[in-house]
Design a protein that fits this description.
single chain; alpha+beta; seven-stranded antiparallel β-sheet; 13 helices; about 20% helix
């Protein structure tokens, strides 16, 4: 038998020079003028088009690229649309467009609203009709260049043949604005500086009457938590500082504002093939979105979950996976047999043993769901607690000083006698009492090596008053909170809290320990600097119970050894 052909020999090879048509007008259906840069082969012929849209702006994509991995200040948003100098020489046209209210385009900013999705539809169909296009269109980009792909696909433009989701969240409330009902201040404090828009007014001005808006602003201004964050407080009178953040603060619960902007409400309308890529460290935004979409989109799809060197994710520009994109689009848009249909449904990287593996379903059918009980003296064990183990507590410190570590309680296993693989979704259920009427719960899962070094495995969040569960949508390993109201908390009363923890794949090696950390706050110096949340600004004692009457446990997806 002959040698198996390497797929790299099958894909399109670079053979074209590139030309750039700047500031090309694309009319939207309502007359708004959208502007795009068109990167295309400098040759006659018809080529597939790849559409890149986001609020970051097309012009930032022409700025100098860092020579290696870039930081969040220089790289994010500026280099997430895809490398046109990779795709265009291989016979693709890359259209980078400013959606309405961003960059050079007219119209009002609507933050992933229906008008943006319609703009995406119009751009797709415009591209398909150009003399340089073969009538087949895909989409390109990571993060906020990936998220609109779901929304555009749900509009079902006839010439859109496939999308490639490279780190794209799907629930505007849960994955981005409010983690577990806790406002994601750090992200929106950081990201607004990167959005290329001329927006100066919050979208809420059109949603609420003048009287309703005035009442909501008074309520916000009187909030002690808002008063404790001068940046947020001044938005009440100066929304132009960050109108998007004010919009989110005016919508503290899930509802139509977020549903319009979330792909999770539109999965059934996505009809084209999808390839999903994400990373295990994208706990705060993209990992849950990609996995949820993979489980709910019913078109031909595959999933790749990989790893990156740091929590910030892929390099900017994201060169690591361009060959995977090329292989898929060569199949979907050029009809080249690159072997992608023969690949397994899921490919994932397992930490601890640092190996690739393939799977056929998620969660894995062979999972042994295992309860690790919270025990006295900070123990974590598969054996339930006895009557004399009581409780553990910590006191939230609202005005933490820079450099302070968040107060917490820790539960840890004994050193493992053999390897323990944990692959899939996690959840923690615990009983607790609070000394005040509100609190934040934040959960870390860590792998503790024999030398004491720690590796973050996953995270979870929940605002105490948002503890209500939607039983119809919840599963033991993935509790689902509706986040549509706040339930009262009586100080001193014990309630059960259920927190979904982001999916993972990790082998805790023999001699290592599994640690559960429960705390009430984070901070830019204590966690990754853009993923920190509005603190509970009341000094609050958190008391966690672990007795036969109040069983508290971590539910883990243990994968039996071969």
């Amino acid at each position: 038998m002959g040698e198996t052909k390497d797929w790299r020999e099958s894909v399109s090879q670079p053979k074209y020079e590139m030309r750039l048509d700047e500031d090309v007008l694309i009319p939207a259906r309502d007359g708004v003028k959208l502007w795009a840069d068109v990167y295309r082969p400098d040759a006659e012929g018809k080529f597939p088009a790849l559409i890149s849209i986001s609020p970051y702006g097309k012009d930032t994509q022409k700025l100098p690229c860092p020579p290696g991995a870039s930081d969040y200040t220089r790289g994010t948003g500026g280099h997430e649309s895809g490398m046109e100098d990779y795709f265009v020489p291989r016979g693709y046209v890359n259209v980078k467009a400013d959606v309405r209210g961003t960059g050079n385009s007219d119209g009002e900013y609507c933050h992933f609203g229906t008008k943006w999705a319609e703009d995406g539809y119009d751009i797709v169909e415009w591209a398909a009709a150009q003399r340089w296009c073969n009538g087949k269109v895909g989409m390109l980009g990571m993060s906020w260049w990936a998220t609109p792909q779901y929304l555009v696909a749900a509009q079902q433009p006839p010439h859109l043949k496939a999308i490639f989701i490279h780190d794209g969240y799907t629930d505007e409330y849960r994955h981005c604005a409010y983690h577990g009902g806790i406002f994601n201040f750090g992200f929106y404090h950081h990201i607004w500086r990167l959005i290329h828009t001329h927006m100066t007014k919050p979208m809420s001005e059109k949603e609420f009457s003048r009287e309703e808006l005035a009442a909501k602003l008074i309520q916000l201004k009187s909030s002690y938590a808002i008063q404790s964050y001068p940046y947020m407080w001044k938005l009440i009178t100066h929304p132009e500082v960050n109108p998007l953040m004010l919009d989110l603060l005016l919508h503290p619960y899930d509802g139509p504002f977020y549903w319009e902007r979330s792909a999770c409400t539109k999965y059934d309308r996505i009809k084209v093939p999808v390839y999903f890529v994400t990373r295990w460290s994208a706990w705060a935004i993209h990992l849950p979105g990609v996995i949820d979409a993979f489980l709910n989109v019913k078109t031909p799809r595959k999933l790749l979950v990989t790893t990156t060197a740091w929590e910030g994710g892929f390099d900017r520009p994201w060169h690591e996976n361009h060959d995977i994109v090329l292989r898929r689009y060569d199949h979907w848009l050029k009809g080249i047999d690159t072997g992608i249909m023969d690949e397994p449904l899921i490919k994932l990287w397992t930490h601890g043993i640092n190996e690739w593996r393939t799977e056929r379903e998620w969660p894995l059918a062979r999972t042994r769901w295992t309860k690790f009980y919270l025990r006295g003296n900070g123990r974590l064990s598969e054996t339930p607690p006895t009557w004399n183990e009581g409780c553990e507590s910590f006191v939230n410190v609202p005005w933490a000083k820079p450099g302070d570590k968040a107060p917490c309680v820790k539960f840890v296993t004994e050193p493992l006698s053999e390897d323990l693989e944990v692959t899939g979704p996690l959840a923690v259920y615990f009983h607790a009492a609070l000394s005040t009427d509100e609190a934040n719960w934040m959960v870390d899962i860590k792998d503790i090596a024999p030398d004491g070094s720690e590796t973050m495995i996953s995270k979870g969040w929940l605002k105490a008053s948002h503890r209500e569960l939607d039983e119809s949508k919840s599963k033991p390993y993935r509790p689902y909170h509706p986040h549509t109201r706040s339930l009262p908390i009586v100080p001193g009363r014990i309630y059960e809290y259920a927190i979904d923890i982001r999916d993972t794949s990790n082998v805790f090696k023999a001699g290592h320990r599994l640690q559960l950390v429960i705390k009430g706050q984070d901070a830019p110096w204590d966690d990754f600097f853009i993923w920190y949340h509005v603190n509970n600004m009341k000094e609050t004692r958190h008391t966690i119970y672990h007795t036969p009457e109040y069983l508290s446990y971590l539910l883990m997806p243990v994968i039996p050894g071969q």
